[in-house]
């Protein structure tokens, strides 16, 4: 994991970009070295794909029924 998980906004500092580059490289190498479920993908690509779609759309109504989101 990255040591610094602070969000720096739309313009990350060079150190954070370098850390993400390193993490992407490690993640990609790990996925390519596995015995099964091989994939050629970086962590940032996975997160971009994950965040580009609606996940678990039923959760909002479920949480509202349980009393969340009350004002």
Shape assignment:
flat
Give a short account of the largest sheet: none
First-last Cα distance: 36 Å
C-alpha-based Rg, rounded: 17 Å
Task: Supply the number of helical segments.
Answer: 3
What order do the SSEs take from the amino end to the carboxyl end, as H and E? HHH
Mean of residue pLDDT values:
85
- Percent helix: 40-55%
Uncertain runs with pLDDT below 50, 5 residues or more? none
Number of strands: 0
How much β-strand is present in the residues? Answer: under 5%
Structural class: mainly alpha
**Number of domains in the coordinates?**
1
Plain-language structure description:
- The chain has 71 residues and is an all-alpha fold.
- Helix content is 51%, strand content 0%.
- The chain has helices spanning 14-33, 43-51, 59-65.
Search tags:
71 residues; mainly alpha; 3 helices; flat
Describe the secondary structure blueprint for this structure:
Elements: H1 14-33, H2 43-51, H3 59-65
Could you give a quick summary of the protein structure above?
The chain has 71 residues and is mainly α. It is 51% helix and 0% strand.
């Amino acid at each position: 994991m990255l040591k610094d998980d602070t969000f720096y906004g739309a313009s990350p500092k060079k150190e954070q970009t370098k850390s993400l580059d390193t993490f992407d490289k490690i993640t990609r190498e790990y996925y390519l070295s596995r015995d099964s479920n091989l994939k050629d993908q970086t962590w940032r690509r996975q997160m971009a794909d994950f965040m580009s779609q609606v996940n678990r759309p039923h959760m909002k109504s479920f949480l509202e029924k349980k009393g969340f989101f009350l004002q």
